[in-house]
Structures are given as structure tokens and as C-alpha cells.
UniProtKB/TrEMBL annotation:
Organism lineage: Bacteria, Bacillati, Bacillota, Bacilli, Bacillales
Protein name: Citrate synthase
Catalytic activity annotation: oxaloacetate + acetyl-CoA + H2O = citrate + CoA + H(+)
Pathway in which the depicted protein is active: Carbohydrate metabolism; tricarboxylic acid cycle
Cited SUPFAM superfamilies: Citrate synthase
Gene Ontology molecular function: any one: citrate synthase activity
Family listed: Belongs to the citrate synthase family.
CDD domains on file: BSuCS-II_like
Superkingdom to which the source organism belongs: Bacteria
Keywords assigned: Acyltransferase, Transferase, Tricarboxylic acid cycle
Amino acid sequence: MTATKGLEGIVATTSSISSIIDGVLTYRGINIDDLAENATFEEVVYLLWYGKLPNRSELDQLTKELNAAANVPGEIINLIKLFPKDVNSMAALRTAVSSLALYDAEANDMSPEANLRKAIRLQAQLPTIIAAFARIREGKEAIAPKAGASLAENFLYMLTGKQPEKIAIEALDKALVLHADHELNASTFAARVTVATLSDIYSGIVSAIGALKGPLHGGANEAVMAMLEEIGTADKANSYITEKLANKEKIMGFGHRVYKNGDPRAKHLQKMSEELGKITGNMNWYNMSIQIEELVTGQKGLKPNVDFYSASVYTSLEIPRDLFTPIFAFSRTSGWTAHILEQYSDNRLIRPRAEYTGPSHQAYTPIEQR
Ligand SMILES: CC(=O)SCCNC(=O)CCNC(=O)[C@H](O)C(C)(C)COP(=O)(O)OP(=O)(O)OC[C@H]1O[C@@H](n2cnc3c(N)ncnc32)[C@H](O)[C@@H]1OP(=O)(O)O
Ligand SMILES: O=C([O-])CC(=O)C(=O)O
């Protein structure tokens, strides 16, 4: 038995949800470029769950179901009010989502119908929790979701209390489409491992949120913004990046386990970052990002991943930095739940082996002799 560090290149499951083949990402066989240009997030949620694009009435039905499920139990809002004000936002999300199960009468109903209903509730309620957390920590009241609004519109509305501009809704919606699913990434794998024990869907999502939180995965988008803020202006990028690379430090938002010639999602986010910069009149984050890309690609041959330009996109939308990774979770819930439903539909316990590297033939020594 020989271990492969980080399971690189290991094919651990079959899946018909999304694929990365020769650097091309598809959801259910549809190229991500096509989806990014044309689909709404709700259409993508339908596509991931049901395996095909919805017709008008199917989309209306799902949108209605998501909208109707968006309110979270009052107990969850009360729980969030008990959180310390400076708590890590992904820890808050993880705790609140875990607590949702306590108030869901179907939490342990493992029928496919109940699991789909829970997927709808999770998808609808994550943005409500994130917005409520962001307001409550500032001493404000949580805002209830608005009837008839899309998930992107509702999130921005619940966050700010104001009707968001069309351009902001469209930008967030596209970011949600781009982050929705990504084959067997670490958080999706964590979700599948958890539910493959026949544990419940909430446990799967909580595992996934825990895995997404780390800076080598979803947490990188927040780390990118921290870096941009630390650098300050484009003219300081050269010395900062050159020194980091010389010290063998990682530049957040670059590199990828699967894509070696660039992440196909990054160009869409780059374009959005530029457009939003022009609209807000602040090109600093975009200009600095472009400069960093040139330096990291030039010096190290690494390309930006999905997290790099999403940082400046969300900043242009005036979203607080520590909500970037929770927004990733809000989007990826669509993919996580699709994978969980797929896992349940043809389950086998996921239990690989470890190559033992410890000592052998050791005898037990009585405690008095140690
Ligand atoms: C949504 C997502 O999860 S996308 C990924 C988000 N994460 C990041 O942006 C964090 C920064 N990037 C990274 O840490 C990595 O590129 C990962 C985690 C994404 C992929 O990791 P792996 O496939 O395990 O690659 P690994 O970390 O082994 O890197 C291979 C080599 O490239 C280097 N490298 C990889 N990424 C970077 C980076 N961002 N900056 C500088 N060097 C890097 C490593 O130091 C290593 O160099 P070495 O061979 O000289 O030791
Ligand atoms: O696939 C990965 O390893 C990480 C990633 O890009 C994602 O989850 O979107």
C-alpha cells in the first residue's frame, strides 16, 4: 500500500454533476462559460439537482419554493444574538447551520423526498443566516426575506435593508453561478464522506462548511482581500509579491490542484471586477489584482483561481471581507446538496486505507516502568 499525498490524481467516486476535463468545467455537461453568460443561479440550482435545465414553469416553481423556505426559525436568530460579536463568520455559519437541524421536524427523515425538501430549505436559509449574522453583530435587527426576490437579490436586501441595484444583483448572481459546483473539491468530498455513513444532510453540509473555511480552499477569497489591503496600491505590488515568492510563501488566489493552465471561472470574475471598478469609480483593487496576476504568473507560472478576482468583485459590491467565504458556502450549498443526494442514491461507505509509517513490534510497558 502506497499513499498518494493529498489524494492527488485519485479518482474516488463517479458523479454526473460536474466535470473538469482538459481544463474545461461543465455542470451536467454544460460549459461554465455558457452558464456564466446566460443562466441565473436558480436555473443552475435546478440543473444541479434535477440534471436538466428547467422550463419556465419548473423554474417558477423552484423559485417559489426557495422563496417560501427562506425564513429561518426565530430560535436561530436568537442563537446568533448570543454569538460573540467578533466571532469568525464561517464558525458562526457552521454553528447556525448545524442548529437548523434541531428545528427541522424532517431532520432525520432519510426519504429522497424529505432530503430534497431539506436541500431546498438549506439553499434558501444559508443566505438568510449570513445576512442576519452580519447585521446582528453590528447591533442591528435581522431583516426577513422579501417575497418574490431571487436568492441574490434577497441576500443583498437582507444584508443592507435597501433595495439593491440591478447591476449588484446581476454581479452577485453570476458569482453564485460560478461557485456553485466543482467536481470532487475538498468540501464536497467532506460532505460525501459524512453522508456515506448514512448520516443526515445537515451533518453533510456542516462538514462541508468546515472544510470550505480553510485558506487553501474557500477561505482564500478573504485572504486575497486581506493581501490587497495590506499591499494598498498597485505600485507596491511588485516588491510585496517578489519578496513573498522569494520566501516561498503562497500567494492566495493562485494555483489549483486540477487546473494547471488556468481556472476557466477566473476570467469571468476578472471582467466583473473591472466593470464594477469602473462603475464604483474605484479601480484600485482591479489594477492591483492585474498587476499581481502579471507578477505571479511571470515569476512562478501560476494562474489565478476562482478566489482571486472574486475578492475585488465582492469588495466593489460593498460586502464585508469576512462574508466572502460564507457567500461561497451559500453558492456551493447547491453543489454540496446535489452531491449528497447523488451519494444517497447509490451509497457505499467511503473508507480508504492509510499506509502505516509508525513503529512496529512495540511491547506494552506498564506505567510504573515508563
Ligand atoms: C476554491 C478553491 O479552493 S481554489 C484554491 C484556493 N486556495 C488558494 O488560492 C491558496 C493558494 N494556493 C494553494 O495553496 C495551492 O495552489 C492549492 C492548495 C490550491 C493547490 O495545492 P496543491 O495541488 O497541493 O499544490 P501544492 O501546494 O503542492 O503546490 C505545488 C507547488 O506550487 C507552489 N504553489 C502552489 N500554489 C502556490 C501559490 N498560491 N503561491 C505560491 N506558490 C504556490 C507550492 O509552493 C509548490 O511549490 P514547490 O513544488 O516548490 O514546493
Ligand atoms: O476544486 C477544487 O479543488 C477547489 C475549487 O476550485 C472549488 O472548490 O471551486
